[in-house]
Amino acid sequence: MSNLFSIERYREAAGWLLERTSIRPEVAVILGSSMGSVADRMTGQEAFDYSDIPGFLLATNPSHAGQLIFGRLGGKEAVIMSGRFHFYEGYSYPELSVPVRVLSLLGVKTLIVTNAAGGVNLDYQVGDIMVMSDHINLTGASPMTGPNIGELGPRFFDVTHLYNPKLRKLAHETAALMDPPLKLQEGAYYFCTGPHFETPAEIRAIRILGGDAVGMSTVTETLTAAHTGIEVLGFSLITNMAAGVLDQPLSDEEVGLVARASAGRLGALIEGVIARKD
Ligand code: HPA
Asked: What is the pLDDT of residue 257?
């Protein structure tokens, strides 16, 4: 595999895709686990398996499909990543920069990320959708670790408004216009590496630190987007209350069940945001 820190790797993957589709996506959507049905809303689909794309990563999680799907969503040319990559699968932080770097070379300007998350904020309920206002990544690691690729972005970069305020506002407006109207939560996503769920004591600490939801994905993607100048909107689907909130164990089955049941609402919201976005 070509060098992770060479732009040629990303150009090869993007070039391979652009030769095989005439769609030029301005928007990309990354789907969280068990949210694959969101892709059903896309018309004129042209799908590529990750395993066929030179230089891409391979999905190992069975609840993630592992396809890049091009088409039209909300009236715009778009690409959906159905299946994402996580630190807990064994990828390094720099490796986790690969997908969004390829998206940027496809011409993507806006990235919408979704994830399943545990509710840390006690005002949240299972099934709520939280607009990500910010994230907390105290693992101390960055997908931009290593030599900087100047063509993609600067060595040091600002993440004050990583989760774009205009897009967040548009998300709330779009949700309010849905039938029935959807009331969204808004809060900070706290990143934990997994694959274990957190301990109750960790969740109490996360709450004190300002986390509203907790999950094992997304931040490497959104940091990569920020580095390369892609605007970001993030949605966390609260699939369970975080560890220790309720007196019951957490399970992947529960997460999958709620995610599948809520994917319809989330998909309608994403489609609406894309349609109303300029
Ligand atoms: N913790 C971490 N990741 C998650 C959770 C959780 O409670 N729910 C869904 N993904």
From this structure: 86
- The CATH number of 3-276 is 3.40.50.1580
Per-residue pLDDT reduced to its tens digit, 54-112: 989 876 766 556 899 999 999 999 999 998 999 999 999 999 999 999 999 999 999 99
Give the DSSP per-residue string, the chain: ---TT-HHHHHHHHHHHHHH-----SEEEEEPTT-GGGGGG-EEEEEEEGGGSTT------TTS--EEEEEEETTEEEEEEES---GGGT--TTGGGHHHHHHHHHT--EEEEEEEEEE-STT--TT-EEEEEEEE-TT---TT-SS--TTT--SS---TT-B-HHHHHHHHHHHHTSSS--PPEEEEEEE---SSPPPHHHHHHHHHHT-SEEESSSHHHHHHHHHHT-EEEEEEEEEEEPBTTBSS---HHHHHHHHHHHHHHHHHHHHHHHHH--
CB 213, CB 187: distance < 8 Å: yes
Give every residue of the chain whose pLDDT is below 50, as ranges.
1
% residues pLDDT > 90 (the chain): 82
- Protein residue closest via CA to atom 6 of ligand 1: 118
| Ligand 1 centroid, distance to 117 Cα (angstroms) | 4
Find the 12 Cα to ligand 1 centroid distance in Å: 34
Q: Which residues, in sequence order, are CB contacts of 195 under 8 Å at separation 6+?
A: 86, 88, 216
In the chain, domain spans = 3-276
Token pair in block for residue 232: 């970001």
Report how far ligand 1's centroid is from the alpha carbon of 8 (Å): 35
Nearest residue (by CA) to ligand 1, atom 10, is: 117
- 36 neighbors 65 (Cβ within 8 angstroms): yes
Looking at every residue in the chain, the average pLDDT score rounds to: 93
